[in-house]
Amino acid sequence: MSTPAPAAARASAAAPQRRPRRQSRYLFLLPALVFLALFSVYPLVQLVRMSLSDVTASTLNTAWPFIGLENFQQGLASGQTGDALTRTAVFVLVVTVVGMVLGLAGAIALRTRGRWSNVLLAVMVFAWALPPVVNGSVWKFLFADAGLLNVAARAVGLTDTALPFLYDQYWALGAVAFVNSWAVIPFNALVFRAALLNIEPEVFEAAALDGASRWQEVRHIMVPSVRPTMLVLLVLTIVYGFRSFDFIYVMTYGGPGTATNTLPFLGYLQAFSRFDFGLGASTSVVAVLVVLVLAVLYARSISKEEKE
């Protein structure tokens, strides 16, 4: 009959010790929260405030006149925001499809051990580690009239004139999107490879005994095994394609005309080339909202994968 009293006393004595520990954990989070508030939350608040104001080069350093949603209405009425959204959707689609398919193909090639797998892994890491400015400049030379791709196309009789990779309004968007895909393939391949290496070798041995072909191994063993990773990587690749800026800046600067003006790049041009900071901020707010939706999807995918 006397046992509950000591147990209650121990519980009451432990409670004050847990509370300081919990408070000390919050203290460790404080620097990160302050950093995020200063360098993420505050700039975003200023961006939204600017998008609702008439901010140009003449009013940038004065009080910003509040104009409500006029900047958003102006962007939609001119057609610039809608056209940029369409181009961004096409751009993201190319980057996502090419990046995911070739990333998985690269991971399957790298799963086996050998000299050529090591060479391919080294080439992929090298391509992934190159700065976007260098990578974009190299591809700009390859796509030039006298570049390697046009020389090869003429040599095999594919064309008599130079292919306008970066000078045609339809070719340019696809060419820049392909180069963005080229940059994301190594990252996707390395992540897929890590997932493939978790498959037990006995699974492949059993499949071999059953007479499964290579394609059947890919379809019935590898793809189902990497499906959780694939969902997370899909969201990351979409985010990467959506926020791409550096390759467009280096290779086409949004041209020819507006052919490669995706949403992030249009916001940059409006703010820092035309000095209409309010209009540029409204375009950037639309881009931030899309990224926010993708971030929520990514967080939900991670949470679902952890529960499984």
Describe the protein in words:
With 308 residues, this protein is mainly α. The protein has helices at 4-51, 70-78, 80-111, 115-129, 132-142, 148-155, 169-196, 201-209, 214-225, 227-242, 246-251, 263-272, 277-307. It has one domain (52-306): MetI-like (MetI-like fold). It contains 13 helices and no strands. The longest helix has 48 residues, at 4-51. The protein is flat and about 75 Å long. The model has no long low-confidence stretch (mean pLDDT 87). Keywords: Cell membrane, Membrane, Transmembrane, Transmembrane helix, Transport.
In what range is the share of β-strand residues? under 5%
Principal-axis shape: flat
The computed structural class is mainly alpha
Number of domains: 1
CATH architecture: Orthogonal Bundle
Described by strand count, sense and barrel closure, the largest sheet is: none
Helix content: over 70%
* CATH class category: Mainly Alpha
CATH fold field value: MetI-like fold
Give Rg in angstroms.
26 Å
Please tally the β strands and state the result: 0
CATH superfamily: MetI-like
- Which series of helices and strands comes N to C? HHHHHHHHHHHHH
Query: What is the tally of helical segments?
Result: 13
Terminal CA distance? 45 Å
